[in-house]
Design a protein that fits this description.
Helix content: 25-40%
Structural class: alpha/beta
CATH class of the domain at 97-179: Alpha Beta
Shape: flat
CATH superfamily of the domain at 97-179: Glutaredoxin
Strand content: 5-15%
Mean pLDDT: 75
Largest sheet: 4 strands, mixed
Radius of gyration: 38 Å
Amino acid sequence: MSQLFRRFISLPIQSIRSFHSFDEVTPAKYISTRLQNGIGSRYVCQLQRLTIQMSQLFRRFISLPIQSIRSFHSFDEVTPAKYISTRLQNGIGSRYVCQLQRLTIQVCKEFRTSFGTREWIANELTEFARQHPYVVIYVQPRRHRPPNVIGEYLSGDRQWIPLSNCDRSHVNWWIHSLLTQQGDPQWRLLKQMHTDSPSIQGTWTPFTNKPIDRTLRIYPDKDLTDIEYPQMTATQQIKELFEQEKLNKTT
């Protein structure tokens, strides 16, 4: 957007003159009788000329070709989309290969915002390197600069995460988050299924289309565990006949 505004702001005077001729500017003079326009005579609209000039100006901007827009923005930088790749099955039926290959921790030895990062380096860096020998770890001191962690992956992608004012637990969480990723968070994952009429009620759950009072019950509930039969079963019919025979004998 900054390039777009810079392009319009830096339009030369010649392009402005193509919209409006400075030779046609109304010269300065005293108030004329046009203030009495419509008083005792027919009213003549003075905005007609201004309307024509404004329409010519907007027509010039609206008719900009697509090539000029592409010069401001590269459409190749739009976030791409893809399906889930097989790297999510890494380690299933084969040896696990960690996608994170290099971890660079940038920290200041004196700055206050690097306190949590320095504490993590002093207490947990050695154990982390022992548990993950396949990850190369670099500690890069930077004087009076905010702390960062940069992860580099097998795919060539890099992730940069700021660690300013993060405590030890948050730093540990972010580093393990980089460890479990594959380096392409900019991809939009596409679903394997498609429907022309998506459901408005969301994903199906066992409580879909069920009474709301079931959420307030205490489980296991005898009323819900009993099987509901649409018709009387053979066992129930035999029991009913047996009860009727007992009543007949007593009477």
